[in-house]
Amino acid sequence: MRVLKKLFEQNRRWAEGMKAQDPDFFLKLSRQQNPEYLWIGCSDSRVPANQIIDLLPGEIFVHRNIANLVVHTDLNCLSVIQYAVDVLRVKHIIVCGHYGCGGIKAAWENKEHGLIDNWLLNIKDICRRHQQEIDGLADDAEKISRLCEINVIEQVANVCHTTIVQNAWKSGQDLAVHGWIYSIEDGILRDMNVCCTNISELPSAYRMR
């Protein structure tokens, strides 16, 4: 019970398989990480970043939390963004939500869940801002799915509004922020057609001079 033997065995098989494909893989990986992408996703165990976009270790820098939120007082998330942008010099930040998100559903239900309810207030704020659109949908399932989509769009905006991203743009750094959503039911990613690449695309109230 204290030692998860099965997982250690799986790890050894995986490492051996990687070395069989490329004997120097781990040596090269240990010397540096140089990813082009930062992934901001949900903690849901069914949405692993590397696997669903078929990238190897070292090719994507990852931050995950419940409901893929970018909260401007969350120093953990902001530190990840700052390191990815300023140190790793990523070229793309991908905010990826998913349909059937438990955090979105929990925020929608208006039931008490404990400490997490304070985190989910961020989603309730989004719901309130888009209440008219959501109320016009047919049923709860459709409303929750749309809220999953809207949440991605809002979090892309939150990323773009950070001083980290805006300072990168002001310095001429090549950086794009994307919004995607993933379907657990078919394993397919969908582009939300929301992408920002410079300060001029932001509402004037959010632009840092």
Outline of this structure?
The chain has 209 residues and is an alpha/beta fold.
Mind telling me the C-alpha Rg? 19 Å
The total beta strand count reads: 5
How widely separated are the two ends? 57 Å
Read across the widest sheet, the strand sequence of neighbours is: 2-1-3-4-5
Please give the share of residues in helix: 40-55%
Number of distinct helices: 9
Tell me about the largest β-sheet: 5 strands, mixed
Q: By helix and strand content, what is the structural category?
A: alpha/beta
Report on this model:
Helix content is 47%, strand content 17%. It is of the alpha/beta class. Strands 2-1-3-4-5 form a 5-stranded mixed sheet. Helix 5 (102-109) crosses helix 6 (116-129). The protein is globular and about 55 Å long. The chain starts with a helix and ends in a 13-residue tail after the last strand.
